[in-house]
Amino acid sequence: MMDRRIGIAMSGGVDSTACALLLRERYDIQGFF
């Protein structure tokens, strides 16, 4: 949900959403954005 919004806000592409998901899992941060 939030991750999709983050991806769209970044570039509006699926790749950005995937990056946001990876970043969240990697750094384990949910409320960072």
Write a structural description.
This protein has 33 residues and is mostly helical. The protein has one domain. Helix content is 70%, strand content 0%. The chain is built from two helices and no strands. Helix 1 packs across helix 2. The mean pLDDT is 65.
List keywords for this structure.
elongated; 33 residues; single chain; mainly alpha
- Count of strand segments: 0
Q: What would you call the structural class?
A: mainly alpha
Number of domains: 1
Radius of gyration (CA) equals 8 Å
Which blocks of ≥5 consecutive residues have pLDDT under 50? none
Approximate helicity band: 55-70%
What's the shape?
A: elongated
Largest sheet: none
What string, H for helix and E for strand, traces the elements in order?
Answer: HH
**Which range does the strand content fall in?**
under 5%
Terminal Cα span: 12 Å
User: What count of helical segments does DSSP give?
Assistant: 2
Mean pLDDT: 65
